[in-house]
Every structure is written in C-alpha cells, then in structure tokens.
Amino acid sequence: MADVEAADASHEPQSRHVVYCGVCTLPPEYCEFGGTVKKCQEWLKKNNSTMYERLWSEDALAAATSSLSLDAQKRAEKDAHKKALKAEAAEAKQAATIASSKVIIKRVERNKRKFVTTVTGLENFGLENKKVAKDLGKKFATGASVTKVPSGGEEIVVQGDVSEEIEEFFLEKFPVIPEDNIELVEDKKKKGSGAGG
Amino acid sequence: MFKKDISPGSKSKVKSSVQRAIRTQLVQTYPLLAPHIDEIIPKKEQLDAMKIPERVTLYLIGLTPLFYQHMTDALLPHLKLVHRFPTCFPSLRIDRGAIRFVLSGATLMAPGLTSTGGRLPTGADTEKGGYGELGGKGEEGKLYWDGEGEREGEGWYGGRELEKGEPVVVCAEGKLEACAVGLLSMGTKECKEKGKGPVVEEGHYLGDGLWRLVTE
User: Fold this and answer.
1) pLDDT confidence band for A100 (50 / 70 / 90)
2) Which residues on chain B are in Cβ contact (under 8 Å) with A9?
3) Helices marked H in B9-166 — which ranges?
4) CATH of B11-83, one of 3.40.30.10, 1.10.10.10, 3.40.309.10, 3.10.400.20
5) N or C end of chain B: smaller count of CB under 10 Å?
C-alpha cells in the first residue's frame, strides 16, 4: 500500500492519496469516533501497520488524551462507549433481520400455460427492488418490473417462469442472501404475500 | 444537512459550457485551487451532476465526488477532495473535545475554535500559505510534512479574516485530515470577539450521508 502521508507535491499528480478505514470508511485517525473502534483497529493493524503504530501506540494515545480535562475525558469515554453499544446493537439487529427474513420467489399462473414470476422480500437484505428488477430483466431478456402489492410493500414481477433461474442468479450475485432463506413457491394463493412486507 | 443516509439519485451529464462555468467559479472561490484545477476537473473529462435530497447537487467525475452545491450557494468541496488537496481551502481548527460533536452532526460552536486547541485566522493580511494541518507557512500550496515526527499545531490557518457566508474546511486538533466542511454563519473576527454562538452551520462531515453515499 502506498504511503499515505507521502508528500508527493513535486510529482505530476499533486493530489494526496488518503487511506480510508475499511471498516468504518473514515480516515483511520477518526476511527475512534466511529463506534466500531475494535474492528477498525484490527483492520488497520492488518492493512497498514505503520499507521497503526502512529495512531494507536501508547505514546500517541497518551498525547491525545493529555490535552483534555479529566471531566471531558470521562464524558468522551462514556459517549464513545454508548456509541459502540449502539453500533453493536444495530449490527446485531441487522443480522437478526437477515436471518429471519425470506426471499420468496413465486410462480403465478397468468393464462393457462403462461406464467409470471414474482419476487418479494429483497428489501430486508438491503437490496433495491428497482435495481434488481433491471438486472433480472437484463439477465433473462424479459420484462421485469416493480409493482405495489395490495397488502403493502413491493414485489418484482418477471415475465415467464424463471423461478429456478432466479434462485441461482441470486445465490451467485447476492451472497448476503443465505441459500436457506430463498423459498420457491409454486401455486397462487398459498402463502408468502404477507412475508415480503 | 446530510445526517440521514442518502440514496443515490440519477446522474446526468453536465453541459460543457456549464462545466466551464463551474471551473471558473471554483477558481474564483478557491484561488489556491487554481494550480490544481486541471487535475481536479480535466478539460476533457465529462462532469456529472447527481441530484440528492434537499435540493443539493453533487458534482462528480466518474466515481469521484468533487463538489456539492445547495441550490445556488457556493460550491463546497466533498471531504474526499479536501483530503486530496488539503492546503487549498480556507480552514479552521477545532480542539479535540469538539471533534465528537462535529462528527455527530452538531453545529460548530465558537468555544471549540477559540480554546487553545482551536485555530482561527490570525488577521494579518500579508501572510500567505497553504491552509490546513499540512500547509506550511510561506510555502504556497506545498505539502511540506514528510511523515516523520510530531508537528502538532504547526498548521497554518490563514492571515485573512473570513467573512460570514464563506465556505470553510474544519480541521481538528491532533488530526491530519479535515473532518468537516461548511459555511461560516459568523465571521471569524466576530467569533474571536464574542467567543460563543454557532460558527459553522450544518455542512458535510465525516461519516454523514454524503460521505457514505455510494457513487457507482
């Protein structure tokens, strides 16, 4: 990795290249305010040890905290702790929603031997229906649109029976979705429309 | 302004005449940027504009965000650009205690600037130099620090008093990189005299919605 502080003013491109933390995306010196300090530290240690030394060595920490009054230090610490807890909670919550939510791929009969495929429940995995619909349409060369469901929420409607292909496509393209959380539904009025939310 | 996460809007190409206008406007607002303008917005490169909520337009080239603009206010640099050219923007420095408030989106108050850890322009018109923690006194726009040793408090924060409404970059005590960008809601001179009240109104700070915006 290129040295961050390398002052390359004399060379052709004059911009500095700044390293950003891979965990919280802030410049590493601001990681302490990000709420995921532990992870950031580990990341930096692994990826840029010189910088780690500069920021997290004991001298540096001592120098950093010495300028604050004790009271302010305590408050800052408390605040940081609270923030960390919050970040942790948010993470846990997200993991829980991912674990509990399902993507439902449903084959709906449209006209005797013609089918459309609907997909619901992608929002919980942080995917955007509109974008996924576009991708699906491109992939299968069919119409794919986002429609509102009467029960609230949205679903993607893809023309043609492509339920299995969609499953494969999702598994390959969106690793956030665990295989067990994809459900294929065949018939019309069985279940599922409520789960998408 | 960007406390909430922003979902990327649609990008549109900027007309070349508008692009030229933006370039001149930039050089006008940030004179120190003039030597680098060709690197930031190369003449041949297509500038894109992205609309984001609250009537803000974000200008980018390819995937790199450059500037944002609220309606027709001054063009403000995206922090990633500030990090690339830290010495080209008028800056202030806040003390350590204020960092965490700024990073959670609070309005910057005067005490954070007037205390020992903070820095404001000196008020002497004749001084010239590159701004920010990396800007060396007298060496215009040159990054002089070689990455060794402690250089606490050596940053240069300008001789000219900044007026109300001017764009400003906020650095932080003990940090190399800038942490926020905003418009002054109080002139720096007034700030020094009064010593309280809001100074930099809501702008763009590290870790806010604009920072995290994914520009595919």
Assistant:
1) confident
2) 141-143
3) 16-29, 37-40, 79-84, 96-102, 111-114
4) 3.10.400.20
5) C
